[in-house]
Sequence to fold (188 residues):
Amino acid sequence: MGRARSARPRDGLGRPLPYGAEGVPRQAEGIVREPGETLREAQRLLDAGMPFHAHEVFEDAWKSGPEVERDLWQGLAQLAVGLTHAARGNAAGGARLLRRGAERLVRGGPFAEAYGVDVDGLVSWAGELADRVERGGRRPKGAPVGDRDPRPGAAGPAGGTAASGPAQGRGKGVEAAEEAPRLRLGSR
Fold:
């Protein structure tokens, strides 16, 4: 069921840190949650600038949930990993995963609708972010995310922090917390 998890500490974007360094607590693996709980926990992590950790929550959902919901949870996981790569400064990988996640999310539509997932908003957000990171652009601070209003209190930590800074040797990444999408219709 996938590769064994490394005990090496990680930063807020899931990057390995040197052994002995203080990392960000990892998500426990194999937690079975109800769909609403999965979405709430993932949203909390996205808002905190921790999309890698949100991806782990979605991964638990696709591994423990019904096969017919796999596209929904894998699509959401790919969106979270796409944001992770974009925040790390990996524009090509981030854009590719954002687009792949949006395509898969559309296939999971019937279940997404039942759980209140904003498929149209997420697909729009993913496409806009993918296009922008490929062009090397960052969203101006406070600018609307997609066609929605700016989210009060969603501004992330300043660049270079463990939760949102770009990786060494790569382009400037986006701020993960600032770019966090709204997963559900009518949230915040």
